[in-house]
């Protein structure tokens, strides 16, 4: 049933009036402008009383100084655009009135006093009975209709109710539905806000855990570097000790060789002596020296394998395998923080044997093998 013929233009007029009313609302009192209406330099409008209230709030000493003797006015900001309004000694009363807005308000109030709703109702006519108004509501068909339709027409066997009753009921239902929908939107917005906070917390916690992870691995690298330096120092000490011993033996053998060579040279020269008496005077001493020199026992030589440094071989395969097992430990964030504090406090004083790499194997002994000195 079509009962909206001739109703749309009137609805359009009502909508236009509502839009016009929104343009005539004062941003201070949120009511329609009251005369006189003043126009600010920024072209926004205010009730003079509201403008004076804003001015007095921004210039609390202006009244106490007396408006008749003040040579300069004060200033305040437009509540709509925050533009600074500078007034002369007359204050708000020096602002120009906006007569156009005042005239529009008068016209609006005159139009608003007309019975718009009664005119709208006059256009709600039944399609089957053109002279009958739509005044009842068919509960069975859920459509508005007229009395004749109930008595003689298509709705004579239907249950009906007064139109205002159904109007109020459905309007109340729609209002309740809107309230529920708005409440649901508020809950959804609260959930969105909460999830945004969760995202921010995830980013913050991730950033913090990345820093902790870098610190842990830097600590591991520091332990490895310290241990490597100690092992290199131990190997260097062993090398120096062996070199000193072997070089001492080389000097001893060299001195013996030099003395023996000189003795051999002297003996050869003595054997070339042609005079027997002169030879015999030196021969006995040379024979004794040669015998003694041939019987001199040197300190010996380094034992076989003395030059080997295989005892300083370090096996790191099991350490590397253990490092590959380092993984995250869910639910241990608090313990990791305590361990991090302890690790930071011990880095300056504790030796490498006291420090332990963090990770799943943290309870084992130090994975860095000590060298085997012989």
From TrEMBL:
The gene is TRIM54. It comes from Canis lupus dingo. May bind and stabilize microtubules during myotubes formation. Residues 121-163 form the B box-type domain. Residues 214-252 form a coiled coil. Pfam families: zf-B_box, zf-RING_UBOX. It comes from the Eukaryota. Residues 26-82 form the RING-type domain. GO terms for cellular component: microtubule; Z disc. GO terms for molecular function: zinc ion binding. Residues 327-374 are annotated as: Disordered. One of its GO terms (biological process) is cell differentiation. Keywords: Coiled coil, Cytoplasm, Cytoskeleton, Developmental protein, Differentiation, Metal-binding, Microtubule, Zinc, Zinc-finger. This is Tripartite motif-containing protein 54. SMART domains: BBOX (SM00336), RING (SM00184). Residues 353-366 have a biased composition (Basic and acidic residues). Residues 271-329 form the COS domain. Residues 334-347 have a biased composition (Acidic residues). The keyword Zinc-finger applies. It is found in: Cytoplasm, Cytoskeleton; Cytoplasm, Myofibril, Sarcomere, Z line.
């Amino acid at each position: 049933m079509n009962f909206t013929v001739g109703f749309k233009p009137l609805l359009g007029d009502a909508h236009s009036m509502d839009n016009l009313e929104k343009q005539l609302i004062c941003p201070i009192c949120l009511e329609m402008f009251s005369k006189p209406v003043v126009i600010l330099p920024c072209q926004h409008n205010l009730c003079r009383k509201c403008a004076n209230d804003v001015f007095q709030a921004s210039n609390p000493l202006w009244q106490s100084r007396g408006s008749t003797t003040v040579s300069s006015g004060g200033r305040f900001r437009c509540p709509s655009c925050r533009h600074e309004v500078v007034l002369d000694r007359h204050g708000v009363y020096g602002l120009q009135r906006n007569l156009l807005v005042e005239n529009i308000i008068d016209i609006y109030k005159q139009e608003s006093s007309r019975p718009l709703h009664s005119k709208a109702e006059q256009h709600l006519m039944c399609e089957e009975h053109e002279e009958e108004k739509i005044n009842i509501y068919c509960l069975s068909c859920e459509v508005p209709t007229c009395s004749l339709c109930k008595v003689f027409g298509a709705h004579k066997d239907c249950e009906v109710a007064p139109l205002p009753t159904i109007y109020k009921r459905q309007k109340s239902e729609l209002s309740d539905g809107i309230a529920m929908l708005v409440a649901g939107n508020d809950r959804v917005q609260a959930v969105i806000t909460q999830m945004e906070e969760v995202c921010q917390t995830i980013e913050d916690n991730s950033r913090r855990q990345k820093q902790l992870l870098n610190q842990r691995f830097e600590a591991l690298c520091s332990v490895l570097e310290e241990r490597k330096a100690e092992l290199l120092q131990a190997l260097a000490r062993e090398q120096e000790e062996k070199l000193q011993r072997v070089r001492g033996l080389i000097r001893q053998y060299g001195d013996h060789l030099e003395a023996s060579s000189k003795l051999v040279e002297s003996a050869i020269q003595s054997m070339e002596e042609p005079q027997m008496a002169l030879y015999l005077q030196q021969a006995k001493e040379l024979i004794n020296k040669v015998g003694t020199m041939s019987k001199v026992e040197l300190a010996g030589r380094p034992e076989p394998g003395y030059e080997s440094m295989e005892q300083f071989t370090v096996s790191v395969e099991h350490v590397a395998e253990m490092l590959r097992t380092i993984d995250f430990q869910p639910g241990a964030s608090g313990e990791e923080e305590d361990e991090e504090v302890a690790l930071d406090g011990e880095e300056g004083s504790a030796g490498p044997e006291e420090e332990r790499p963090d990770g799943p194997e943290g309870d084992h002994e130090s994975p860095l093998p000590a060298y085997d000195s012989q």
